[in-house]
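debug: dumping io for the single-chain case to check the tokenizer round-trip. Nothing else runs in this session.
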Amino acid sequence: MRLSLLILFALTALPGLPVAAQDLPPNVENPDKAINDWRYSDPVFFWRLTSQPENPFEPPDWFYWPDAVIEGDAKAFLPAAQAGATTIPASTLKAMEKWSEERKSNALIVVRKGRVQLERYWNGTKPDDILNGRAITRSVTPMALGFAIEDGKLSLDDPIGKYITEWKTDLRGKITVRQLAQNVSGLEVADQPAIDQIKDNKDLCLVYCGDIVRAVLAYDYVIEPGTKFEVAQENMQLLALVIERATGTPIQEIVSKRIWQPMGGMNATFQFDRPGGKARTMCCMRATARDWTRLGLLVANEGKWLDRQVIPKSWLATMATPSANNPNFGLGLWLGSPFVAKRTYFEGTPGVIPQSEPYLADDVRIMEGGGFRVVYAVPSQDLVIFRHGPGVPDWDGAYLVNTAIRGIQAKVDQ
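debug: decoded output
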């Protein structure tokens, strides 16, 4: 019996005998092909794949190794309004606090007219903790784009093949910088199979692989650029690659020197794809609640932090100009008008961001990430709100902003 098994094994192991496709489950790669797939020899990819935390969508800090540090120049945060001297009624602030706490928030900061009206933390969160902004990150890279344009390193209508030379003669190289930044690149929205499926899982490789450039260049051309709004995962990563190649400067250094240090932020961080590699910019930058709020204040104050012009005023105006394909999206910023009961990330698909009523101001600017972590900036009201926390089923995108504005109006009418 043992001899028969050995003979059978020897026969199946003979070189040159192909693996029959029907012998493999649908999610298992043919080993003859797999051993030549670069992902299978990527130790960083397999460390991440085999070290997944309990909730891979809300991982602990250690999973973001290695840090691509955005060096800050920490300065004092804004002064708090004195009790009885807030420009938003205390009863309104109490209602906002209660609503946020009931929705499992970790942090809530409300700033108006240069004074902190409310700052609350829950679930053990502290002011100096760095918090995962998830897709809020996708508003940071477009801010950095403004500096590259101001410095004359590129223009919005340049084809990206000018900088991504791997695509110089490829259809993908004709996509413009503007089309990337406005999420109308025409590149594929990749399928998202189970997290343990490696075969054809491009988004998994984008977040886990140790070579982010190789991962992002794997996305295919699907439709004519400029024709359909889709927040494809790869768009902001490609935009960062364009900026880095045009300027010769790593994206984390641009953000550090041109935004984070001038606004007095603490150290923040992207994640490197591997030690000494490239920063991931399509997701999951981490910063303190106060520094996410500072970013909102730059948007609300036409690029200024206190009396210092940090981001060019004209560039903030460009970011807040509705794009041709989606009036609720500019260039790296979501726009609160016109009203949409459920805002979508992918044109032609059901919306995912619920909103019970129109905003009470026409100039609401929004930076948002998964789990309804969000920065609202309302220039006309000199108002910024930051909320961090997990997703909840009864979220209302209008509540915090409109509650604050109603309170402001009531105080004015007194």
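debug: round-trip ok. The two ends are 95 Å apart (CA to CA).
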